[in-house]
Amino acid sequence: MKSLLVCLLLLLAGGARAAGIVDATGRTVVVPDQVMRVLPAGEPAAVLLAALAPDLMLGWPQPPSPQAAVWLPDTVAALPQIPPVPGDRAAIMTLHPDLIMDYGTVNDRYIALAKGTQDATGIATVLLDGHLAKLPEVLRGLGRVLHREARAEVLARLAEATLAATGGRPAAVRAVLVHGAQGADVAVPGSGAAEVPELLGWKVLAPTAAADEHGAFQPATLAEIAALDPDVLLFASPAMRQTVADSPAWRALRAVREGHAWIVPAVPFGWLEGPPSINRLLGLAWLSAGRDAGVLPFATVFHALVYGRLPTPEQLADLRDALRPIEP
To answer: Rounded to two decimals, what is the model's pTM?
Structure first.
C-alpha cells in the first residue's frame, strides 16, 4: 500500500489534443473540437466520466443513492437522471449532447447499439473497452477527446500504479463471489464481475460453466457453494452479514469459520462491480492488501483524487467497520 501512495504523490500530467478517437468497435469516431455536453450511456460510463470530467456530464442513468451521494461532491451527486441510451430519441435530443459515451462490455450487441445510436441520432457515439487492464489507455484516449489531458494522465497513472502493484500473481486463492441479499447467485468465472480477483490470479469458482452461457451471475444453492469449499467468500450485499448470522448452514462453511468471508464495500460504488468502472481499482488494492483495514490510507487518497471528496473521519470509521470479516 505504501508504494501505491507514493505513486499517487508522483503523478504528473501530459497529453495532446485530438479530434477523434478509435473506439472498441474499431471505428474512428470524429467528435466536435469542443465537447461541452457528454451523455453517459450507462452506469459504468457515468462513473468514469464523473471521475474524469464531471463538468461535462449531463447526468446519471441511475442517480446515486442517498448513502452513496454523501461520498461524492454535492454538484456531482445532484446531477439529474438522464434518459436511457438507447431509448427515447426525442428525449436524448432535447439534451443536446455533443458526445454519447458507453463504457464496458464489448460484444456484438453493444457494438451494434453504439453504431445504431449514432446512426439514429447523428451524435458521435463511442464504445470504450471496460476491461480494467485497459483503463489507462481508455482514460488517455478519452482525455484527449475531451481536452482533459492533464486530468486523464493523473488518473491513468493511478490506474497503472495500482495494476502494477497488485496484478498478475500466481493462483493461490479459491473464491466465490456471492450476489443478492439471500446469496442466491454467484459470479461466473471469466465474467466482468470476476475480473478483479482474476487479475490477482485468484480462481473464481461457480457450480457450472462460463460467462458466455450465463452472463455475469448464475443461480447457486447454498449446498452447491458448500460443495465448492472456497477459501474466500465475498458478498456483494451488506444484508448477507445478517443472513449468515441467522443461518447455521452459512456459518458452517469453511471460509466463514476461518474468518475469510467479507462484505464487499460499495460506497459510493462497488469495489468489485456495481458498476464495473474505475471504482474497481479500490477492489484490486483491497484484495491484494489482505482484505482488511490496511487499505484505508489508499482508499482515502483514492476518494479525494478520483471522486473529488475527502472522506470524513466518521465515514472512514464506518468503512473500517464494514471491512471486518463476517463472524462465524
So the answer is: 0.90
